[in-house]
Amino acid sequence: MQCEICGSDIKGNPIRVNVEGSVLDVCGKCSRYGKPADKWSPVSRKILPTEKVIVTHKPRKDVFDKLEGEIVPDYASIIKKARESQGLTIEALASKMMEKAALIRKIEREELIPEDTVRKKLETALNIKLTERVSSQDQRGGGFIRGTTLGDVAVIRKKAK
Predict the structure, then answer these.
(1) pLDDT averages per 10-residue partition of the chain, 161 residues
(2) CATH code for 64-132?
(3) pLDDT at res. 67
(4) Burial of 115 (0-12, 13-18, 19+ CB in 10 A)
(5) Number of Cβ atoms within 10 Å of the Cβ of 34
(6) Burial of 37 (0-12, 13-18, 19+ CB in 10 A)
(7) Which pLDDT belongs to residue 135?
(8) Do the Cβ atoms of 23 and 16 come closer than 8 Å?
(9) Sign of the C-alpha dihedral, residues 24, 29, 32, 33?
């Protein structure tokens, strides 16, 4: 048998050592590189009984179910007019809403569309309405009841004989 470290022939019984987590059969000279692996076990053999955990998943809520409507296209001008009519500066409105003034500026310049939380704060602070109801008929495309099918999209070519 050969030493698994230096490769020399081992005379007699090899010495089993643990070298950095690996158990090797080595010669007497190379045994100093590891610890004796007589009764060493890398994994604890104790197995504790575990309690069964029952995980119930709530059905995911669709984000679009919570939407009350679509934001109006001219939201920036509505916000600016309402703010100016109340005599508020951007900084005063921001402190009233507990938001940053830069956020209000970006919304008024139409660089950002306000998220629902910010939109609700704007609506309550300025007494305005920034959303409009969208009827289901508008979403379907003018009374087109049946959904789009593959036949509406695909171009079918017939094989030439």
Answers:
(1) 86 85 86 76 62 69 62 90 93 93 93 90 91 63 60 73 66
(2) 1.10.260.40
(3) 57
(4) exposed
(5) 19
(6) middle
(7) 61
(8) yes
(9) negative
SS3 content of the chain, % helix, strand, coil (to 5): 35, 10, 55
Q: What is the reported pLDDT for 15? A: 85
Distances (CA, A) of 17 to 28, 35, 50: 10, 5, 34
| Domain range annotation of the chain | 1-39, 64-132
Residue 24 backbone dihedrals phi, psi, to 5 degrees: -125, 150
The pLDDT value recorded for residue 68 is: 64
**Residue 23: its pLDDT value, please?**
86
> Can you tell me the distance from the alpha carbon of 66 to that of 73, in angstroms, rounded to the nearest whole number?
20
Q: Report pLDDT for 127.
A: 92
Tokens of 100: 């940053």
Given the structure tokens 């409105």, which residue do they identify?
93
pLDDT number for residue 25: 87
Contact (Cβ atoms closer than 8 angstroms) between residue 18 and residue 35: yes
Report how far apart, in Å, the C-alpha atoms of 13 and of each of 3, 10, 27, 153 are.
11, 7, 9, 77
